[in-house]
Amino acid sequence: MLLGLLAGAALAAQTPSAATPWEGAGPLQPIVTADGHTDPAVRGAWRSRGYGWIIDIDEDGVTRFQSGDTCYRPPQEGGPLSDMSSVHYRYFRALPGGKSAIFQLLAGDTNVVFDRLEALPAPCLSPVQATPQVVADAFLDHFERHYAFFDRRPPDFAARAAKLRARMHPDMDDDALWTALGAFMDGLSDSHTKLIGVVEGKKRRIQDGQGETLPRIRASMGEGAWLTQLMAKTRAGLGDTAHQVAQDRIIWGVIDGRVGYLQVFVMGGFTDREDFASPEWAAAELGALDSVLDEASTAFEGLDAVIVDLSNNRGGWDAVAKALPGRFTEKPYIGFTTRAPRSGLAPFPHWIRPADGPRFDGPVYLMTSDVTVSGGELATLAFRQLPQVRQVGTTTRGSFSTPLPKPLPNGWLLELSNEVFAAPDGTVFEETGIAPQEWLEIYDPADPVASHWKAVQSVAKEALGD
C-alpha cells in the first residue's frame, strides 16, 4: 500500500503533460509495416510503466519479457493458456523526444507507455530455472507489483506471502506447488484474477469471485441448460418480433408494441472469425454489432421506452461496451476512466461517442445482476452517466479490470486485475459492484428461468406507467 501512496504522490507532482502523454502523442502507426518488417522508429528495447513488460523490437518482430525483481522470457511451448496471453501490441504512437512511446493492441485500447532502454538488460538473456522457489517468487513479485485491489479484497498480502514462502521446498512436485499458490489466492473474490496451468497433463484453473447466481446454477441445472431455456423463454415473450442474431449473442424485439428490448450476452464474438484481436477481427465485430443495432434502433423509433438487458452479460471487448450507450446519446461524454496505479499516469478518460446510425432518445431501463461483469459493468458505468437511464435489478459483480497476463517461469499463467476503472467522478466499484437505482430480483433461486422474463415484464409495465 505504501507503494501505491508514493505513486499517487508522484503523480500529483507531475505536470499535466507528463501525466497525460496521450494528449501529445503522434498518430497511430503499425509496429509491423506492409513489407513484413518492423518500423525502424520503434526498434530497440523498451520498458513499460506499470505493466511489468520489457519488449525488444528487431527488424523481424517483437519479443516480450517479464520484468520485475528479475527479467525472463516465459516458455513458448504449448500455446497460449488464455485469449489475453495470446495477444501482443500491434500499434505505437510516438511521444515527443523519441524516448517514450505509447503501445496499443488496437486503436482505442489502453495507452501503455514504454520508455526506451539503452539495451536489453542482461538478465533477460539468461535462461531461468523454473524451480518451485523461482516460480513462487515470480508469482509473489507479480502480485505485489501489479495487483491493484489489496485494499478492497481479503488476501493480506504480507501474511499470505510469508505462508507461501514457508511451504516452498526444492523437491515439491507440480501438484504441491499448485496447491500452495492456490492457497495464497483463496478467498480473493476477483473473477479477473486467476491461475491457469497444466498439472500432470490436465489443464487446471483457480478462479474465485463468481457471484452467487452462477455457482448456484452450475451446481443445479447446469449453465448450458439454463442459458438455453432463458433464451427460449425470451424469444417466446417477444413473439413474432424476436430476433436472435450475432452468433446468438444478442436478442432484441418489441414488447406490447411499445417497449423495445435489447439483450446482449457478451461484448463480442458476433462473427465466426478466428483471428482474435486482429484489426480485421475488430472491424468485423464492430460491423456486425452496428448492423444489429441499426436494425434494432430503427425498430425502436417512436416507442415509449427501451430495456437494455445486461443481466446475463459476461463482458468482453471494451469497444463494444462503449458502443452500446452510443446508441442512446446525442452528444459525446466520458463514460468511465482507467488507470494503472504504478504507471504514474492520470486516469485515462473513455469517451462515449454518439453512433452514426439511428439512436433512441427516450427513457432507458438498464437491467443488471450479479452475473453482469467486466465489459457489462463498463457499459453499466457509461449508461449510468445518462440522465434518462434507470438501472433496475441487482448489484453487478464488481470485477472491472482487464486481466493483465503474467506468465510464470514454468509456463503457468497468472492473470491479475491491475487497472482501476472508475466513474468520471472517481468512484470505484471494484468488489462492491454497481448497485441498481431500483432493486428487482432477476434470477430467483426458486425459478431462475421464469423469473427473468417476469422481471422483464415488470420493467416494461413500469416503463408504460401501468
Structure description:
It holds the Pfam family Peptidase_S41. Residues 238-441 form the Tail specific protease domain. This is Peptidase. The chain is of the alpha+beta class. Helix 3 packs antiparallel against helix 4 (157-167) and helix 4 (157-167) packs antiparallel against helix 5. The protein is built from eleven helices and 22 strands. The termini are far apart. 28% of the residues lie in helices and 23% in strands. Strands 1-6-7-8-2-3-4-5 form an eight-stranded antiparallel sheet, with no helix packed on it. A seven-stranded mixed sheet has the order 11-12-13-14-17-18-22, with helices on both faces.
Indicate the overall shape: globular
As laid out across the biggest beta sheet, the strand order is 1-6-7-8-2-3-4-5
Write down the CATH class of the largest domain: Alpha Beta
Annotated CATH topology of the largest domain: 2-enoyl-CoA Hydratase, Chain A, domain 1
- Alpha carbon gyration radius: 23 Å
Enumerate how many helices there are, as a single number: 11
Q: Note the main sheet.
A: 8 strands, antiparallel
Number of domains: 3
Residue stretches low in confidence (pLDDT < 50, at least 5 long) are 1-16
CATH architecture of the largest domain: Alpha-Beta Complex
Overall pLDDT confidence: 92
Structural class: alpha+beta
Task: Count the beta strands.
Answer: 22
- Share in helix: 25-40%
